[in-house]
Amino acid sequence: MAIKPGDRIPDATLFHMTTEGPKPITVSEIFDGKKIVLFALPGAFTPTCSNQHLPGFVRHADAILQKGVSTIACLSVNDAFVMGAWGKAQGTGDKILMLADGSCTFTKMLGLVLDVTARGMGERSQRYAMIVDDRVVRYLGFETSPGAAVESGAEKILSLL
Q: What is the C-alpha end-to-end distance of the chain, expressed in Å?
């Protein structure tokens, strides 16, 4: 069963790239006591993710952060090296926390797995975005059409804050 508004974000450990290499970061560190925008996508360097989804959050990061959001986080079922390189390529800087769920563990806990094994990509994350207050999901918008970033896009999130 997929997570829904009103549910709490479960405990998990994710990874992010630092100047010292990949480092673990817990859900508690990211979400506890904060307002967070988390968006997830099927894969770094893929067309919709690289041309629409992430660039929208880069473009609107300042406006989102000015609405009282502590962190904007981007999650994908990729490793921390890939997420770090993709963040650099996309110019995320320090405005977007690039999170790796390399083993799909957190994504499975949320019930938001996208199985694209038939297309050679294995299990990935669905494309979604959520607004979370102190680990409680307030909004969850996910896409039902491939190639779309409407309900999970930065503009939608900004309109809800």
A: 26
Query: Angle at CA 47, nearest 5°, toward 64 and 3?
Result: 55
pLDDT for 120 equals 66
Is 49 marked active-site? yes
5-15 residue pLDDT tens:
999 999 999 99
User: Tokens 């938001």 correspond to what residue?
Assistant: 112
Q: Which of 41, 49, 132, 137 is catalytic?
A: 49
The secondary structure element, H or E, covering residue 31 is: helix 27-31
In terms of pTM, does the model score above 0.70?
yes
**What gap in Å lies between CA 77 and CA 90, rounded to an integer?**
17
Token pair for 24: 């673990």
CA atoms lying within 13 Å on the CB side of residue 43: 14
